[in-house]
Structure formats: structure tokens, C-alpha cells
Amino acid sequence: MSDPAGVRPGDPVGDPVGDPAGVPAGALIRTQIRAMLAADCDVVAALIRQAFAALPVPVDPPPSALREDAASVAAHLAAGGGAVACAAGHIIGNILWEPKDGGLYLERLAVDPAWRGRGIAGALVAEVEAAARQARAARVHLGTRLVLTANRRLFAACGFVEIALHTHPGHAAPTWVEMEKRLEPPAPLD
Description:
By secondary structure, the protein is an alpha+beta fold.
């Protein structure tokens, strides 16, 4: 799937795969997006650490995501919500969100490095947008490091725009960018 913005929440996403999870070359694997459960938190924490450890460039300061554990993921989940992408019986992607500053704050988007480039991240972002619409939130927003240009392109392809630069403590120049996607005003309730 090359158009992450075209994925609808809950849509299965599939692609021929080479070697992820030992699947034979050319096999079609269906990926299902579902709500994250408390029982998923340990696996999700490990996936977040794995995905953030595989960043293509060094980031300073190191990502706090590398310190995630089951308890911290459970706290994120309890503060808002989350979704996971599953394929062949395994969690291969996740996303968390929480209400913040007039919208839903998207956090801890992670896709197993072996499964990247298959529309999974875009499908997970679509889940946050669906949750925001259901909550009648005006926007979805996030922060990402300036040096992570592929992440910035992914979010831009999903309709996010850069709205502010921020600096981590101890740094003289900006290190991260805040992005947001404004949502259409919800239809009036009847």
C-alpha cells in the first residue's frame, strides 16, 4: 500500500513479503488493526524499544521510547488509547494516543523494522484519526525529531503539517518539530 492516507481505520493491509516472521517469499499476509489490550503491553513495549533502537540516524538526546516497559505502556494506554497491527499471529506495529491540548496526541508509533514500507504506519495513524473524530476532537498532533526526515514525510503524507519547532533542554538549536492534522468539524449530534 503506497498511499498511507488512503487507508481507512480497521482496513486489513496486505503485501507480498520477503522474510518477515519466516513467511515464504511472495506469500500474502493480511495485517489486521485492532484495539490495544492491557495484555499486549509487554509485547508492545519490546516492539517500541526495537523500533526506536533501529532509527536510521542517531538522535540526541536519546529517545525516551528506549525506556518503555509494560507498566509505562499500560499507563499510556490508560491515559488515552492504542491500537496494534497484527500479522501471522504477531504484533508488528502499534500506536498510542491521549487527549492533550484540544486534540489527541499521537505517540509511540512503532512498526517492526522487517514490516516497514507496507502501509502499516499509515493504517495505525488512521486509527488515531478515527478515535479523534469519535471523541469530537479538533485535531491530532504529535512531535518528532527534526533529523527523522522519513517520519516527517510519512506524517506529511498522512495530512500533518509542521506548526512549531521545539528544543530539548540543554540544546541550543531546535531538536524536534510539532505537527498537527486539523480534522473537519464533527457533524451535529441529532
